[in-house]
Specification:
Blueprint lengths: L1 H5 L3 H7 L5 H4 L12 E11 L12 E8 L2 E6 L2 H13 L8 E3 L10 H4 L2 E3 L2 E3 L10 E2 L24 E9 L10 H9 L8 H9 L5 E3 L10 E2 L2 E5 L8 H16 L10 E6 L7 E6 L4 E5 L6 H11 L5 E3 L29 H7 L8 E4 L9 E6 L15 E4 L7 E5 L16 E7 L8 E8 L4 E3 L11 E9 L6 E8 L17 E8 L7 E2 L24 E8 L3 E9 L6 E6 L16 E7 L9 E11 L4 E8 L15 E4 L3 E4 L5
Parallel strand pairs: 3-6, 8-9, 8-11, 8-12, 12-14, 15-21, 16-18
Antiparallel strand pairs: 1-2, 1-4, 1-13, 2-3, 4-7, 5-6, 10-11, 13-14, 17-24, 18-19, 19-20, 20-21, 22-23, 23-24, 25-26, 25-28, 27-32, 27-34, 28-31, 29-30, 29-32, 33-34
Helix pairs in contact: 7-9
Length: about 675
């Protein structure tokens, strides 16, 4: 009889036995490590307790195994298995709170099945070292939204019904608890006492009424043990017992009070308020694509921290910049200082997260571009407004643009308008921001990375070819007008080597658009195009830090070496059969405005007719080499014999228009 019990499925066993707990997990290891045994995979995301700081060896993502609603154990994985699990989470093969871990994989070789068997060791679920995790994952056929308590088929985030929420104030066996009363917690989270900046108010604002975090009160509890949307729970163990024991104890006691296991049919989201566990470098954590979040100490009173954790419940990953997975402070899914305050969190999510959430779904709100299927059209020009002006947008301008890469590294372009509901956003203020996602194309769980921040006149270029297109992608912001109502940004997206700002007038055949191209011998990307011009108009240079003058000579520009570079060729877009002269400034240093009338400042460098005679094709002048030491700047000037050379650029003449690991190229002025 004992052998028959051991080989029953986990779910059959669970119905006959009391819920497992860490104290008896080891004794029941045999019950959860044989054929047909399985558990639900959970992914817990942790937020560091210090704004803008990620402690050394901080583990932001942990995978757990949920056996029933009151019993969870950590997955004990090696480094490669953790990486594999993260990869499956990103590409959609693993859906947290839905996919299952199968203890005895059906495709395992019978002769090795014993070695493949999952064990419970030291109160964790241990995966055999070196085993391929994919063999243990039962892929979910249809991902489900969290807390799916609506009629089948209703889209999760479009549904305007309130989302019912509960806060649990936990008191441990030592009497330790947060200082706030249930009524105070209710006010901090839901605004029931008049607090004007809360998690509820900000979610309602960012979603424009599509998401209402409504406090749901259980019946029959007095004011000493509950408030609107809040209950008190006392557990019989100290907080120092750790994450898994405390969570299990809280769920047990809450079930006794409520009469059902959480979340039940009553709640969409549950927030647990605790004091510190064994390790205290985290502010809060939440389960991905789920209903549960946990907050340490005072962080339950901070709206921005709550919105970050609820973002994980919404199936959002973190928003990063450079090497920090939390470093994008334009988004609630980073760890900006704006999150960590009882009056903080007056900001929303970035373009990639907004695309995923689906809160902006009216005609024209989202632009979906696929350069891999462009049918000969390499350009897109349009206008963006920020989320804070979503209801002040009579012309129906877009909120976010997605640019598909074809390789699961899509780009999202938006205007980070800092006002109103986004007034506490502290990075890339009023700039066009470019965010890249890794996996799921913005339609599911995906880490995002802030890649570009454009002021008016700025341009961003992909580092090498973009996705599967075989071409460089350029994104520019020719105009940003914040005085307009609503404030807007004009955006130009272009694929290929001839990208600049969008044309504003026909190009005369005796003018040229200057696009210097420098080829350093040390660069891993040998051709770099610094577009300092958009098109040609008449012979009046329209400004950008320089007064309108007649361009009788040419254009000056600076090259600053990040590493030692050698310039051997200058390339540009120019006219048909024209003759050019290239000058370099005598000595190192940038050009000065007075240099345009000072012939003694320049020396001849190269001249002749370019290699190609086709108008508006990339022209090249082979030159003698010029060495520029690391950290130094050298100025150049290009002159068209008998014609005017004009570079239209509506910015400052010293703006950096292109940079990589080798050099920076700054836009110049006419001379």
């Amino acid at each position: 009889m004992m052998l028959r019990v051991i080989y029953l499925s986990l779910f059959t066993i669970a119905s006959a036995l009391p819920p497992l707990s860490p104290s008896n997990a080891r004794n029941n290891a045999s019950l959860i490590s044989h054929e047909d045994g399985s558990c639900i995979i959970q992914a817990a995301h942790f937020l560091p307790s210090e704004p803008g700081i990620v402690p050394k060896n901080f583990k932001g993502l942990r995978f757990d195994c949920e056996f029933d609603k009151r019993f969870v154990l950590p997955l004990d994985l090696d480094a490669n298995q953790e990486k594999e699990m993260r990869g499956m989470l990103v590409d959609g093969r693993l859906v947290a709170n839905y996919s299952m871990l199968v203890f005895n994989p059906p495709n395992a070789n019978p002769t090795t099945s014993k070695q493949m068997e999952i064990k419970v060791v030291d109160e964790s679920v241990r995966i055999p070292r070196g085993a391929d995790m994919l063999a243990y994952i039962k892929t979910a056929p249809t991902p489900r939204p969290p807390a799916f308590h609506k009629e089948d088929g209703d889209p999760f985030f479009f549904f305007p019904a309130p989302k019912r929420a509960l806060v649990i104030k936990v008191i441990d066996s030592d009497g330790d608890t947060v200082s706030e009363t249930p009524a105070q917690l209710s006010d901090y989270v839901f605004g029931t006492g008049g607090d004007s900046i809360t998690a509820r108010s900000q979610l309602n604002a960012c979603s424009y009424g599509k998401f209402d975090l409504k406090p749901e009160s259980p019946e029959g509890l007095d004011s000493n043990t509950s408030a609107e949307g809040v209950i008190k729970v006392t557990i019989d163990i100290p907080f120092s017992s750790g994450k898994y024991a405390v969570e299990s104890a809280v769920r047990d006691e809450a079930a006794k009070i409520l009469g059902y296991e959480l979340p039940g049919e009553a709640y969409d989201y549950v927030m647990i308020s605790v004091k510190c566990y064994q390790y205290c470098n985290w502010a809060a954590y939440a389960y991905t694509n789920s209903w549960l979040s946990v907050f340490k100490n005072e962080f339950i009173t901070q709206p921005g921290v709550i919105l970050h954790e609820l973002g994980h419940n919404f199936n959002l990953d973190h928003s990063g910049e450079n090497e920090s997975e939390y470093g994008d402070h334009t988004c609630l899914m980073g760890n900006s200082g704006s999150l960590y305050s009882t009056d903080g969190g007056r900001m929303c999510y970035n373009g990639a997260k907004n695309w995923q959430l689906g809160w902006y779904e009216e005609d024209g709100d989202k632009i979906d571009l696929d350069p891999n299927n462009r049918d000969g059209d390499d350009n897109w020009t349009g206008t963006l407004v920020g989320v804070s002006d979503y209801r002040n947008n009579p012309n129906g301008h877009a909120i976010v643009i997605r640019i598909r890469s074809g390789i699961n590294k899509d780009l999202f372009v938006s205007l980070n308008r800092v006002k109103g509901i986004n007034e506490q956003n502290i990075e890339a203020v009023d700039q066009v921001i470019i965010v890249e996602t890794h996996g799921n194309g913005g339609d599911g769980f995906s880490q995002s990375w802030l890649k570009g921040k454009l002021s008016e006149g700025g341009m961003w270029r992909s580092n090498g070819t973009f996705g599967n297109t075989g071409e460089v992608l350029s994104i520019s912001a020719p105009a940003i007008d914040l005085a307009a109502k609503p404030g807007y940004a004009d955006v130009h997206i272009c694929l290929g080597s001839m990208c600049g700002f969008p044309s504003i007038s026909p190009v005369p055949t005796n003018k040229m658009s200057l696009t210097p191209t420098l080829e350093p011998t040390t660069s891993s990307h040998p051709t770099m195009k610094a577009t300092c011009s958009s098109s040609l108009g008449d012979a009046n240079y329209p400004g950008g830090g320089v007064s309108n003058v007649y361009a009788t000579g040419g254009d000056m520009f600076d090259v600053t070496a990040v590493k030692d570079v050698v310039v051997t060729q200058i390339s540009f877009f120019g006219g048909n059969t024209l003759n050019y002269v290239l000058y370099k400034k005598i000595g190192l240093g940038p050009f000065e405005l007075d240099d345009r009338s000072n012939q003694s400042a320049w020396e001849h460098f190269a001249s002749g007719t370019p290699e190609t005679t086709q108008f508006h094709m990339l022209q090249r002048l082979n030159t003698a080499s010029v060495s520029i030491p690391s950290g130094s700047t050298h100025a150049f000037s290009i002159h068209v014999i008998g014609h005017a050379a004009i570079a239209i650029y509506e910015g400052n003449y010293s703006d950096i228009m292109y940079e990589n690991d080798d050099m920076q190229i700054s836009c110049g002025a006419v001379n």
